[in-house]
Amino acid sequence: MRPKLIASPYPDGHLVVSPGQEGGIKLGVNKYAELRDAASTAPVPGWLTVAARAKWGMDVTGRDVGDTVMVRPDTPYGYARASYELNLGCNYDCDHCYLGEKLFAGLEWSGRERLLDIMAEAGVLWLQLTGGEPLIDSLFAETLAYAYDLGMMIQISSNGSRLHQEKTLDLLRTYRPYRLTLSLYGATEQSYDGMTRSKGAFKRFMRGLEAAHEAGLAMRINCVLSKHNAHERDEMTAIADRYGIPSFEYTNITPTIHGTGEVLPSQAREVLRRHDPYTGCNAGLTHFHADPHGMASICKIGREEQVNLLDEGVEGLRKLAVIGDRLTTRHGGCTGCTLQKTCGTCMPLANLYRQAKAPLETYCQHGSGPLSASSRGGES
Ligand code: SF4
Ligand code: SF4
User: Fold this and answer.
1) Where are the domains of the chain?
2) How far away, in angstroms, is 366 Cα from ligand 2 center?
C-alpha cells in the first residue's frame, strides 16, 4: 500500500501528514487511537475526510482506512527528525564545501535497511537525505523508496545536477519528497561553473530546475554566497522568484566538519552576517544526524561524539541526549571569557571555528568587528 496519509506520533502529540506535501493536521490522542484501532476495511472517518480536503484539497470520501492511512506506532524514543548523509561523494568540487574531503563510501544495502528501520523505530517522521550529492549515490533509489514506505516524509538536499534526467524525475514523481532543497551557486555560467569547478554545471542546474518545476516537485532554493558569486546575489534570488520557489541566502562559510579552515578563504566578507544568537536547541533529543557509516551524532555540526547505530541499535540513541547536553553547554575553548553566562553562540559550531583558527568575530556573538548587521545567517 502506498498511503495518501500517515498518522504518526511526534514529540508534541500526534498528527496526520500527507507524503509529498507540506503541513500537517494535529490529532488528539483519541483520534489517533481511533485510526490505530480501526479495522482496515472501516471507512475513513468523516472528520478526517473533511480535514484532508481543507488541508490538501484531497478527496478520501468512501475510501477504507487500510488503503488510505498508514498509522505509525507510538514510540518511547521521541525523535521526530533525522538527517542521513548517504555518501560524502559528489560530482562537484566546491571550494567552500564544509565536507572537506568527499570520499565515495557508504553502507551496503543491508546496513541501510537496518539504519532506516532503527530510525523508524525511534519515531523519525521527517527525514532529510543528503550527501555529498545524494542523487548520484548508487543506492539512492532503493534508500528513498524504503524510507518512504516506512512512512517517512522525505526532504532531499541536492545540487540539482541530475534533475534533468528522466530516470531521476520518474523516481521523484513516484516517491515525492515534501521538499527538494536545491543549492544554487551562481546566476551565470562563469560564477556557477567556477564555484563548483565543473564545466556545464550552471546549464545542468537550469535544465534540472525547469524539469523539476514541470514535474510539480515542491522545491526550495538555497542561494549559497561566496566570493565567486556574491555580486550576483539579486540575480540568484530572481532565478528562484521566476519559478515561484521560496529562496534563502546562505552567507557564512563554515569550517569543514573536521574543523579545518581551508574553505574559509572562499568567504565573501561583504555578505558575512552575525549568526542568530543561540538560545538552545533539541539536538540529540528530538533530532539527530547519521553519517554514511551509520554513526549518529546530535546534528551535522556537533560530530565530536558519535554512536554506532548498527552496533548499538535504537537504544544507542539514548546516549545522544547526554552527549547533546555536554556539547551544547561546554565552553572549553572560552576559558577566561567573562561573558560566558550570556553567550549566544552555538558551542559545536564555535568549536569548529576555533579548531580552524577562524577570527573570533566570525562566530562569537560578543565579538566586535565588521559584523554589525544582526540578521539571519547560515551555513553552506
Ligand atoms: S557543496 Fe555540495 S555540491 Fe558542492 S562539493 Fe560540497 S556536496 Fe558537492
Ligand atoms: S549546529 Fe548548534 S544550534 Fe544547530 S543543531 Fe547543532 S547544536 Fe543545535
Assistant:
1) 5-71, 81-317
2) 18
Of all helices (H) and strands (E), which one includes residue 126? strand 126-130
User: Relative to the alpha carbon of 379, which ligand is closest?
Assistant: 2
Nearest ligand for residue 133 CA: 1
Nearest to 12 by CA among 73, 77, 80: 80
Query: What is the C-alpha to C-alpha distance for residues 213 and 161, in angstroms, rounded to an integer?
Result: 14
* Residue indicated by cell numbers 530516470: 167
The architecture in CATH of the region 81-317 reads Alpha-Beta Barrel (3.20)
Please report the atom of ligand 2 found closest to the CA of residue 278: 3
All residue ranges of the chain with pLDDT < 70 are 1, 331-333, 335, 341, 365-380
All three cell numbers of 140: 539512492
**What tens digit of pLDDT does each residue of 162-213 get?**
999 999 999 999 999 999 999 999 999 999 999 999 999 999 999 999 999 9
**Pure H helices in 197-250:** 201-214, 233-242
Residue 358, CA atoms < 13 Å, CB-side half-sphere: 27
281 close to ligand 2 (CB < 6 Angstrom): yes
